[in-house]
Amino acid sequence: ATMAELLKQGYTKEEIIELFKKHGNNLAEVDRELAGQTIDFGADDPNAHLYRDRDVFTMIDREEVDRELPFMSPKTQKCSFKQFISRVKSLVDGRGLTHREILDLMEYRMGGDFLADMRRMRKKGSTLPEIVEFFLKKDMEQRQNNLRIARLKSQAKIDAMIALKRREIK
Question: Which has the least CB within 10 A, 38, 53, 110, 165?
Answer without folding.
Answer: 53
